[in-house]
Amino acid sequence: AEGLPRPAATRVMVVANQKGGVGKTTSTVNLAAALALHGARVLVVDLDPQGNASTALGIDHHASVPSIYDVLVEGKDLAEVVQPVVDVEGLFCAPATIDLAGAEIELVSLVARESRLQRAIDGYEQPLDYILIDCPPSLGLLTVNALVAGREVVIPIQCEYYALEGLGQLLRNVELVRGHLNPQLHVSTILLTMYDARTRLASQVAQEVRDHFAAEVLNTSIPRSVRISEAPSYGQTVMTYDPGSSGALSYLEAAREIALRGIAAETAEAKGAQ
Ligand code: ADP
Ligand code: MG
User: Can you give the residue ranges of the AAA domain (predicted)?
Assistant: First the structure.
């Protein structure tokens, strides 16, 4: 992977879709690894009690490991829980443990319950180009914390029949958070995942998504690939598990698009501000 231009400021990207199994975690860890292989410094925040992103990055996340739960509920510094990912330089992870399952309830009674992740990220002093937040499949307080902390929303969409159902609810939540808590929040990126170009349904759904979200959908879609689904059981992303595979190459290309679109957006914003 060649080097890519790095963003002027850390891009905080929330990978969300309240539907389970659409490729949130897979896309979070592989895009993060791909961006790191392109030369960026990247932190993955695992915000799903399942801890699948932590597992896929080979990060120890048994119950006693300092985790994002301690950050959100106990007010621990993010720096105290971040671990380096051993086989990818520049890639880091704030793991989730099973404790996080209780956080959704515990957060309810805490002060500034919606902005605890934002505060933790603001207080993190290590230089980073990207923070990717892997959300659970719900729109509860954990996802709200991510939406308050982030600036960009990345929505992975699986090209199947019900793909667009439920998306309206996510978009309304993004609007609500934008209106009340985080004026800069917007959907910047839509990624088509598990795409099988041979089926007519997949290409129809892909076309429908591209018609609705012309500017946000990446040109690159992620193919359905056994190598992608095997990698986590080796505690690896497909980027190191099988770097030459179609899955790895498509995540590298998607990461490149994300990096270049970010630079284009920065330039447009700078011009607009003049
Ligand atoms: P989510 O985080 O949205 O619940 P996951 O990323 O865990 O979704 O993906 C759901 C399942 O689909 C996992 O078993 C994962 O390995 C598999 N998967 C994800 N992307 C692909 C792909 N491109 N090709 C094949 N399997 C995939
Ligand atoms: Mg997941």
Answer: 11-186
Of 229, 242, 249, the residue with max ligand 1 atoms within 8 A of its CB, to mutate for a pocket test, comes to 229
Residue 1: what pLDDT? 55
The H-or-E segment that residue 188 falls in is strand 186-193
**Strand 83-84 and strand 91-94: pairing?**
antiparallel
Please give the distance of CA 251 from its chain centroid, rounded to a whole number: 13
Q: Which residue's entry shows tokens 């380096």?
A: 84
Residues in the chain with pLDDT values less than 70:
1-2
Distance in Å from the first CA to the final CA of the chain:
35
What domains lie within the chain, and their CATH numbers?
Answer: 11-265 (3.40.50.300)
Residues 33, 240: contact at Cβ < 8 Å?
yes
Question: Residue 213 and residue 105: Cα distance in Å, rounded?
Answer: 34
Task: Kindly state the tokens that stand for 14.
Answer: 């929330």
pLDDT in tens, 137-189: 999 999 999 999 999 999 999 988 788 887 999 999 999 999 999 999 999 99
Residue 173 and residue 9: Cα distance in Å, rounded?
A: 25
Q: Among residues 134, 115, 107, 131, which one has the least CA distance to residue 48?
A: 134
* Phi and psi torsions of 167, nearest 5°: -65, -35
What pairs with residue 153 in β-bridges? Answer: 14, 187
pTM of full prediction above 0.90: yes
